[in-house]
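As a warm-up, study this chain.
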Amino acid sequence: MNILQEIWSSLRHNKMRTMLTGLSVSWGIFILIVLLGAGNGLSNGVRSNFNSRATNSVQLWSGKSSMPYHGLMANRTLDFSNRQVKDIDEQLREPDKKSGIIDKQSTVTYGTEYGNYSLRGVDPTYKDIFNLKFDPEGGRFINKNDLKDHSKVVVIDKKIKEVLFKKEPALGKYVKIGSVMFRVIGINSKKEQYGNPTCYIPFTTAQLIYNPNQKFGSIAMTVNGLDSKAKNDSFNKKLIGVMSRSLYFDPKDEQAIYIRNAQRDYLQTMKIFNGITLFVFIIGIFTLIAGIVGVSNIMLVSVKERTREIGIRKAIGAPPGSILRSIIIESILITGIFGYFGMVLGIGLTELVNYIMVQTAAQSTSENDMTIFMNPTVSLTYVFISTFILIISGIIAGYMPARRAVRIKPIEAMREE
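Now compare it with the structure written out below.
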């Protein structure tokens, strides 16, 4: 208790010194949190733009040949069939989940309500490739039994449910797509993407009813093990080779098929923003070092000014250990209290920015809005480590001159100005 009273008396007697030391600590922690939060916000924002599909997804679309090939004319329309899906499955080892995609436009009717929407025939794997979302009460996606039985079931986007069913439950009800009745089994709550809201039906059902020529224009898949730009470029080249042999077009023909490799785009983008995050982290470290230097200087001056006081205390019988303990505890209290104050301010600011970003995103009805900043929060581990480093720095900066001061004779200490 006596030590705490001595420390409190010292702090009150040196208010300016105490405030300067504390502000150095608070400012260092505050700026470090803000900079790390900005780096995380940039990284999270860019990463969120890839949430519309799996980051390891690849999708290809068929086009028209622009070059003659082995006696075949140019300007041929190229369409996929089940053979191309099978060739990919047999000749490439990187693809995992695959889905052919049949795209149509059709009128969807329920009672007196109707609308013209996209109709998409897909496999069950489509849900994971394109990150479709289902609320707990939102039913399910298409499964293997639906494919096997050519079931007339449909999953609708939430926007279609709101237009056709209003506030009425949609699951289990029947809608007419064109002239065929389909039972609603699920509602996709993922916000709509580019284009109209979509109805999803089993791929086999779409082939049977709407696609008698068995041709379709797109194949999507996820891939494994492509963790670098070089591997993705190599995979794209192999994929073009497989398709050129399967559809008979020149592999150099850039108009024959179009490939969107999200994994490659994701890796390139994250490489850029990881560099930015590292740059921000380095600036934060230098800011922390500046705080450490500030704390150290102030503690050095503080102990130097108290050399005469230390000499007097030794002269009246205070043991050196008690004096050292008093200075160290004072250092811990100043850096700890003001470090906590800076930590609260920094976390409060990042949480406030995050709240504003979340509210703004909640008011958006489309995922088409691109963002480069999201969730600028910081791991508390970094914050506690930074505060701990500042406390240790303050202790060392106070201990070294204090140790020297308690070693000199009281009469010499009292001569110090």
